[in-house]
Please model this.
Amino acid sequence: MLPPKPPRDPPKPEPKDELPSHPPDRPLPKPPNEPRPLRLRRRPKRPLSPPRELLWPYAPPIELPRLPKPPETPRLPKPPELPNPPPKRPPPSPLPELPKPSLDLRLLERPPNKLPKRPPKRPRLPSPPWLQSPPPKLPPPSPPPYPPSELP
Model:
């Protein structure tokens, strides 16, 4: 049998420092209360338009002549509102009652669902003679092997 295993030592608790140990080349993390520095946006490669100071000697600002304001047109007064607007169209006049025609019950029956007959096909026209193929040549009739009188 195997000898009994020696009892393991319980793990020793590591000594806790106030600050975590960091390698000397990495800085310690900043406390969370301090605001982070704002990231600067990358400047465009070249400005889209030159500054106004550079434009001034070459292109003085153009002042357009101001047009005089047109005189105001007098507005028409609003018509007074009527209490009841007139109807747009007159009410329909009652039609005189016409006598009801007697219904034929045969008209109410549905006709059978039959499709109309297909029109007959047009007969094909004969092809012109210059397009027709020549008639097949038959071999010449062979003479009878012996005269009919000699038949047994």
About this structure: Residues 52-55 form the longest helix (4 residues). Helices lie at 52-55, 105-108.
